[in-house]
Amino acid sequence: KLDFEDSGITSMDERFLQNLFTILEKNYSYPQFNSNVFSKAAGLSMMQLHRKISALTRHSTGDFIRSYRLNVAAQMLRKESGTVAEIAYDVGFNSPSYFTECFRKQFGLRPSEFT
Predict the structure, then answer these.
(1) H-helix or E-strand containing 77?
(2) What is the pLDDT of residue 114?
(3) Residue-wise over 19-28: b if at least 16 C-beta within 10 A, else e?
(4) Confidence (pLDDT) at 81
(5) End-to-end CA distance of the chain
(6) Distance, CA of 113 to CA of 46 (rounded, Å)
(7) What CA–CA distance (Å, rounded) separates 89 from 74?
(8) Which end of the chain has fewer CB atoms within 10 angstroms, the N or the C?
(9) pLDDT per residue over 57-97, tens digit each?
């Protein structure tokens, strides 16, 4: 569970974000899980979901999904749960090279350098 106590996020927004994280937790490994599928799972239009995520996190819906996937991948890398390519596919990326590019942008290191 995330702690939003000092973030200025209301309890309603906290419940909304917790719901989004629950949806992500169940679906992040599917490469076809994108903003459109996410919005349907959340029961919102793509624009409503984008506006709400953007207002609460300052990220686009796609960035929100990608960041979640990369954080899961970082945990998997720390646990040495597979090769970089295996982990890339496990978290829903179709291309290990694109995964590496995104990972480096988010964490400043290549996945193979991350511990």
Answers:
(1) helix 61-78
(2) 83
(3) ebeebbeebb
(4) 87
(5) 23
(6) 36
(7) 13
(8) N
(9) 899 999 999 999 999 999 999 999 899 999 999 999 999 99
Residues 54 and 22: their CA atoms lie apart, in Å, by 18
**Contact of 102 with 108, CB cutoff 8 Å:** no
Burial of residue 46, with CB atoms counted within 10 A of its CB: 0-12 exposed, 13-18 middle, 19 or more buried: middle
CB 103 within 8 A of CB 73: yes
Contact 65, 33 (CB under 8 A): yes
Amino acid at 90: D
Share of the chain above pLDDT 70, in %: 90
How far is 15 from 21, CA to CA, in rounded Å?
10
Contact 106, 45 (CB under 8 A): no
